[in-house]
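Marked as duplicate of an earlier ticket. Keeping the data here for the record.
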Amino acid sequence: MIACISARFGRKSLIRRAFTLVELLVVIAIIGVLIALLLPAVQAAREAARRMQCTNNLKQIGLAVHNFHDSRNGVVPAATSLADPAVRVSGVTFWGFIYPYIEQQNLYNILTRVTDNFQKDMSNENFWGTASVHPLTDEERKSFNFSGYLCPSRRTTVIPYDDATQTGNTGEGGIYGPQGDYAVVYGYRTNSWPQSWRLNGQIADGTSNDFRGPVRTAALQTSGNLGSWYPTDTFAWWSDGTSNQLVVGEKFIPKDYMSDCRTISSPRSHTSDCSILTAGYLNMTAGFRIFYARFAKGNADNSISDITNYTGANGVHWGGIHPGVCNFLAGDGSVHTISATIPVGNNSMFNYLGRVDDGQSVTIP
């Protein structure tokens, strides 16, 4: 009898009550709330990592600038260009010159090979496009979309350029070529660039405010020979001091024009994304910005709703994808996050930080 009772109670104790539907729904709801609370933190951590990488890219560019100066005894040139006013195209720009100093010797070797040491024009569509006459293989063309020139907060890859998707007005020059999210501080206004790019304009009017940015066109040892280039200036050109000089910053590109190299409004170059390796017809802004420029306010989606006249001369804006701020490289190699609300224009702190010799005692905030 006792054995039967024990067996009966033993079996009963093994019976477990299952979750009710209400209990299961409560558990699922709790898990959902925890995920909802955790997801923003994960996204914020990822963005912080991307932003750190973006800053690191600028630091690497800064190291390249200094290594170039040590090796070549001069500041990285803005570009190679001829003194002849009738010649309206440039050779390689700042972004190509620093390839060997940013661990991209292979890209530099390709450039020197296909341009005969930078003497051939890179601005026309046949150079970068898929036409049978271009000197680059498909793999070589794609390799120039270097990740070190891209901010991962904005994009980690770029759309390869080809004739099918990047057709445009060939008369503007530079409609093809690599893309990048950073720009060199150059000059006071874009309409003066055709003069400041040329060697004769740079030298003859070297005192003009228009040409007082940190980088200038390369000098030539032999007239008409772009392959004989050498740096025009040393760090002494930055007479306000390297720590007070902005050199490179994040450039604004409207969301709808990302990876777009076609003719866009007039002039197209003010919002172009491509052709950072050439100044095209000497008025290209893909790899450059003026130190007089305004800031795009940095909407989270990189939209253009908060700025005006973005296709005109005033549309050459600074501003990355980070809301409210923009990262800049200073001449001493440090990187600074500057608020988009900083005053711009004449007699502004930002204008003083872009010009090499204004004599104003300002420091980067």
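See parent ticket for discussion. The first helix runs from residue 2 to 14.
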